[in-house]
Amino acid sequence: MAIHFNQSTIAPIVTADGVARQPLLNKQRVPDILFELDRLTISSGGHKALAIAPGELAWFQMIDGTATMHTAGRKLSIAASHIGLLPPGFEGTLVSDAGATLLFASVPDVERLDPAISTDPPPFRVIDWQDEPLLQSEHDARKRIYIVTPRMFGTRAIRGEMIIYPPGTQCPVHHHQGGAHFMFFLAGQGACYAGADQVMAVGPGDVVYYHDLEPHWVKGETDGDLIFSEFFVPSAVATVWVDSSKVCTWIPMGMNHRGSRPSRVIEKHAHSHLADV
Questions:
Q1: Which of 131, 256, 262, 270 is the 20 to 30 A CA-CA neighbour of 82?
Q2: CB 151 within 8 Å of CB 276
Q3: What is the maximum span of the chain, computed from C-alpha positions, in angstroms?
Q4: pTM of the predicted model, to two decimals?
């Protein structure tokens, strides 16, 4: 069965630096998991030291608030729509004057998933997902935004997408093969289905983890957009559709989530051809 819970059910571990950590996904919950996922809340005036081991890769997704990343003599403003990649050996400190909330994930022993990372490590990089190209399904009004891909971040260890389901839309039944897959719900209401009979009502703060080869699909409710981020570890996780005629082609809309010109150009492509996005 898929794993489903809300962040509110996880007791925070509070540290002296003003950070509350909620361990969402780890080996205690999923013994064969390929990564660890935490929700971090930095209080006003708090700070989070970040030290990524040489054989490790990490990334973060801001959920709320603002912060400043201090690293290698640089200061970078981090807003609620930012996603960042922290390469092996990265050191920095995330400081928040008014408070911030973020997802933080790490992949230990990352060379298993991306052997080239030891000789050609990716750079530290932060993007604003609302500036990235918005794409729409050829079948319906579902939309997606690529937020972590090999082309964008220079590693094949992970892949990430923002997904938007307008009211009443749903995806066909499918499963993934070759790695881990989880969703974190940011806004709206909907339902996730897994296996033959598992139904999960989902809303903001919910986490859903699907096991390898587990059939599933998602449906948005009738009011408001259902918005979630989903990540795959490694990036090459394959998607297999029960009905092959439902394989989706994603069509660029010529704009970003804000309705203005996107930061780059993505060509029309089938879901099964993600290598160059």
A1: 270
A2: yes
A3: 54
A4: 0.96
